[in-house]
Design a protein that fits this description.
Helix content: 40-55%
Largest sheet: 6 strands, mixed
Strand order of the largest sheet: 3-4-5-6-7-8
Shape: elongated
CATH architecture of one domain: 3-Layer(aba) Sandwich
Structural class: alpha/beta
CATH class of one domain: Alpha Beta
Number of strands: 8
Radius of gyration: 28 Å
Order of helices and strands: HEEEEEHHEHEE
């Protein structure tokens, strides 16, 4: 009986040691996988940021060379205006400005309906963050190198202008009679 017990004990000890080694190998593999995924995530994030920068620069350059938008001529085009007060911090991608009007344009490489809804919600914060423009009429727009189905309709329903690339030029997809929302 003692011999059977010793045999069973040795068998279980060997089994536990093999299990411990497998757990250790698994943990080492998991750590390597996590490091790889973190590195890959940073690379993909860098690509996404670069794509966003390309889109912003494309629309910025086009607005700089053609400041006449939706029947209004603008004097100045500004890019990446960031301002914050307390917990409220907002970045506006492109601003077209004249003596009494501002058109704020949110730019995405691939514009989605959710992006349109988000810019619509952050536009009312403009007057709080930029009180120097309190007497200006403020309007919104969205622009994308590409866009998901329904994005154009969402922008129209929100009273936002909608821009897309068209070769080397920017194409306004909004109807000329679109009544813009004022913020």
């Amino acid at each position: 009986m003692k011999r059977d017990f010793e045999k069973t004990e040795k068998f279980l000890r060997d089994k536990f040691e093999r299990t411990d080694r497998k757990i250790l190998q698994f943990n080492q593999s998991r750590v390597k996988t996590e490091k790889f995924l973190n590195k890959l995530g940073k690379q993909i994030g860098g690509i996404a940021n670069s794509s966003g920068d390309v889109a912003e620069n494309y629309f910025y350059q086009n607005f700089c060379s053609n400041k006449f938008v939706h029947g209004v001529e603008y004097d100045h085009v500004d890019k990446n205006r960031i301002r914050g007060i307390g917990n409220l911090k907002v970045e506006y991608d492109i601003m077209l400005i004249n003596s009494d009007k501002i058109l704020i344009t949110e730019v995405k490489y691939n514009l989605k309906k959710i992006n349109i809804k988000k810019i619509y919600k952050k536009l009312p914060n403009f007057r709080v963050l930029f009180p120097e423009y309190k007497n200006y009429s403020v309007f919104g727009a969205v622009a994308g190198m590409s866009f998901e189905n329904g994005a154009e309709k969402t922008a129209k329903n929100k009273g936002l202008l909608f821009f897309n690339q068209s070769g080397k030029d920017v194409k306004k997809l909004s109807p000329d009679n679109l009544k813009l929302s004022e913020f």
